[in-house]
Amino acid sequence: MSEPRSGLLRKVRRLFLPVVSLAAALIVLGYWYMSNDVEGKLGYKPEVRAVEPAEHEVNSISSQVLDWMGVKGKVTEGGGMAGACDAVDPEFTTYYQVNHPWSIYDLTSGTFEQAMQNLREKLPKNGWVIKRDGHTNSQARNPEIVAFHPGSHHWLTVEWAWKRSGNPPKMIMVDVDSRCYKAPEGAKL
After folding, report:
1. What is the pLDDT of residue 169?
2. DSSP string of the chain?
3. CA–CA gap between residue 94 and residue 65 (Å, rounded)
4. pLDDT by residue (tens digit) across 64-86?
5. Using an 8 Å Cβ cutoff, are 138 and 119 in contact?
């Protein structure tokens, strides 16, 4: 014999309600994940910041690093520039980071070795954490210092390029990088 109609409805409801609840939870979780995908990929919530002050900060860090080296010579021109935050916005529409690669060469005062040693001493005294102090993974095995500033979240890579193919002049190559920022609403990158 068949069940009365109300008993069948109760069974359907018992099975149907958990499925609907699970589907609703997955939709909410999916929406939350999509809205937090940037934070999930980066590991932090990007600060909303105009490009010009972020570039100025990176340029200021580069100037400090040059001063801490304690050497004089020719420095490549140019300054920090905003570029794509590839991890979350390779199209460079909303999120960006600032990068400033530069180098010093043809020293007129001091030595490259002295510059690297000065950085080993000055970086920690100024809030930087040296994450790596050794040699590059290249065939040249040039001396390299990689440091992070926990307060500003900037990264610094310094390589004393004393061995390079073709025997070009020795130089110290520096790269200052910011974390990813979110451009203010309406800003054009």
Report:
1. 82
2. -PPPHHHHHHHHHHHHHHHHHHHHHHHHHHHHHHHTHHHHHHSSPPPB--HHHHHHHHHHHHHHHHHHHT-EEEE-----EEEEBTTTBTT-SSEEEEEEEEEEEEEEES-HHHHHHHHHHHHHHTT-EEEEEEE-SSSS--EEEEEEETTTTEEEEEEEE---TT-PPPEEEEEEE---EEPPTT---
3. 29
4. 999 999 999 999 999 999 999 99
5. no
What is the pTM (predicted TM-score) of this model?
0.78
Nearest-5° angle of CA 140, CA 144, CA 148? 150
Phi, psi torsion values for 184, nearest 5 degrees:
-60, 155
For the stretch 76-114, pLDDT in tens is: 999 999 999 999 999 999 999 999 999 999 999 999 999
Dihedral-angle region of residue 86 (phi above 0 means left; psi in -120 to 50 means alpha; beta otherwise) = alpha
Are 72 and 41 within 8 A, CB to CB?
no
Two structure tokens written together for 109: 């005062």
